[in-house]
Amino acid sequence: MRASVYSLILLFFSCLLHLSKSQPFLGVNYGLTADNLPPPSASAKLLQSTTFQKVRLYGSDPAVIKALANTGIEIVIGASNGDVPGLASDPSFARSWVETNVVPYYPASKIVLIAVGNEITSFGDNSLMSQLLPAMKNVQTALEAASLGGGKIKVSTVHIMTVLAGSDPPSTAVFKPEHADILKGLLEFNSETGSPFAVNPYPFFAYQDDRRPETLAYCLFQANPGRVDPNSNLKYMNMFDAQVDAVYSALNSMGFKDVEIMVAETGWPYKGDPEEAGATVENARAYNKNLIAHLKSGSGTPLMPGRVIDTYLFALYDENLKPGKGSERAFGLFRPDLTMTYDIGLTKTTNYNQTSMAPLSPTRPRLPPAAAPTRQTLPSPPQMILPSPVTPSDKNSGQTDVHNSTPRSASLAHICRALSISASMFFVSVFKSSTAPSSAPESDKRSEKNSNADEGSTSQNDVAAVNKGKGILGHSPNKPNVNLTEKPNKSSSSSQRSRPPMQENKARVTREKRSVCRTPPINTENIFDCLMIC
């Protein structure tokens, strides 16, 4: 029973740590139109070191899919625009495509979505657009034949924002009339299969059409007066929300408001051609960092409050072979040597050391000088260095001395961390003592004898008990409780006999309470005393 409780406690704290670091709504686009990219294995390790939980590929490169196996990262793979005609006209080709690009890797590689085509409506090819829905249906049928349907792997396509006739104000947005019939069929498919309507909103390109300073702040999630939609009377504080709500309004206008929206691409270039306004490192950092903070807040959008949308940043790397303007080759968050282009807090260790959950086990107690103790001068009890909640800036400013008292300005978070550590050590000590062999009483006697060597202050055995609690972090939990400063010495008996009655009573009460803590069961009457001792 106690083992189960102990396991649940560890699981609880592990879940809290995981939730505080993971961002399940955040993904990244991993394009391969370059000749200088690191190997897929290195990219997979890089992704694991970040808070990205999803990755989108534009194709189905087997080396990349294999490298992502057993990482837990969700994968969106793509069927190219060139594959659409074959997938649409030949169901056997669709089955072959699934058997080649999906079946060998699933479920080790966590493929969750197949994007059939990318921004097909932007090419103005009506024939290709008309083949999109049949291609998606054949891929869905092939997945079901491979027992990968039923929501295991979904099918959709990705749209450009120009599929809308307009997006300002958001409440008036509708799809372009020339795409209405095709989009209605695609949305019916999305609704029936539960797949998302994927779209690529880019405030950067909206800024190119309106280069006022207030528009830049509006695009970068910075302070601005906001914009009110006169029809809905909703106030928008950033362009991203306005663009996403414009898509939602268009879906609603066709009767598909329940279809989920997925942001398949969004980002900001850190450089570009001279005529590309706002393409700077500072703006790219501001957009991506503020976007992540906005998504993490869970506030949603004015039309969809509290709704967090899966969002894929563009892009993991620069793609130096992409055609077009300079900005097309300058969206990368990381360089080919795996260093950050600019820091937006993506690494899992970001701010971990600064916020300092501190050592989860107490620092090893400082030992007194190695002079041999005598009956006349016993060594002072070792000083316990508790886990410090001090940040580097606090330490440098002299606000806190870890060797003295607790800082006056200690925050509630620091106190909670200290209590969590103490509670964890307490439960470990209870569990170990309850399962100890029958020779435990003799160990207790030695502990009591050593505790008498202190002049009514913190006993050396307390230090040993704390060190015993380190077993939770993989230290040696089975070491006996020994005196850290000297071998057991009969001279401690004479020191005990010379104690005043009040100190003797205090030591006896402490021994009794410690004995209660080592003797199960622990109940509500004595748990407070045990916590104070431990």
Automatic annotation (TrEMBL):
Q: What are the Basic and acidic residues biased-composition ranges?
A: 442-452, 505-514
> PROSITE patterns under this entry?
PROKAR_LIPOPROTEIN
A molecular function (GO) held by this record is: glucan endo-1,3-beta-D-glucosidase activity
The record's section on Gene3D superfamilies has: Glycosidases
List all Polar residues biased stretches.
391-408, 453-462
Q: What is its EC number?
A: 3.2.1.39
Enumerate the InterPro entries for this protein: GH (IPR017853), Glyco_hydro_17 (IPR000490), Glyco_hydro_17_plant (IPR044965)
Tell me which domain of life the UniProt entry assigns to the organism this sequence originates from.
Eukaryota
State whether keyword Hydrolase applies: yes
Swiss-Prot/TrEMBL keywords: Glycosidase, Hydrolase, Signal
Q: Which residues form the signal peptide?
A: 1-22
Q: Where is the stretch described as Disordered?
A: 353-408, 435-514
Catalysed reactions listed for this entry: Hydrolysis of (1->3)-beta-D-glucosidic linkages in (1->3)-beta-D-glucans
Q: Which SUPFAM superfamilies match?
A: (Trans)glycosidases
GO biological process: any one? carbohydrate metabolic process
Q: Which residues cross the membrane?
A: none
Zinc among the record's keywords? no
The record's annotation in PANTHER family points to: GLUCAN ENDO-1,3-BETA-GLUCOSIDASE BG1-RELATED-RELATED (PTHR32227)
Q: Which family does it belong to?
A: Belongs to the glycosyl hydrolase 17 family.
The protein depicted here goes by the name glucan endo-1,3-beta-D-glucosidase
Species source reads Arabidopsis thaliana
Lineage per the UniProt record: Eukaryota, Viridiplantae, Streptophyta, Embryophyta, Tracheophyta
